[in-house]
Amino acid sequence: MKNLWIMLSIIAYILVLPAFSAAEVAPPAEGGKLPDIRLPIPSDAGYRSYLSVKGEGTFSIPQIKASVIIIEIFSMYCPHCQKEAPSINDLYAKIQSSEKLKDKVKIVGIGVGNSPFEVEYFKKTYSVQFPLFPDGDFVVHKQLGEVRTPYFIGIKILKDGSHAIFYSKLGPIADNAGFLKVIQTQLNK
Fold it and tell me: From 3.40.30.10, 3.40.50.970, 3.40.50.620, 3.40.1190.20, which CATH number describes the 28-188 domain?
């Protein structure tokens, strides 16, 4: 009987240990900083120009030449992301059509658990014009606290080159006009 309890204790320990051994990462907090997310420099010249990144290899999101960067965490399989795609496309179009915003605000999307093929399928199906990046191995997703989708993060690039998160929320951006006002407030700081 004693050996049975020892055996059950060992099994329980082995099953529970992984839950406590991995440090829990919280979603990005407003006022905080992004983890060091590395994305591949796009092969598409238009995307490289839009992001103002050069060369080959990887870049970090704060290296994008903009004052404000909006990050959409999505999945091709997420019905909420699919439903949100036209609204985000509209937000992108409004930013691009504004002389005051188009060079200062950039949007990127990261497809968690999505391969390059799946990201490309999402891009074509929903006519997404801004750069989308695959995160097939969930590396970025884990760095961001395994947030659900869609999840939006807004960062402000500060004068010293550092950055601060000003927006970090799960779910759709319900009001593009209101969100553009939030972005404009960040640009005026």
Answer: 3.40.30.10
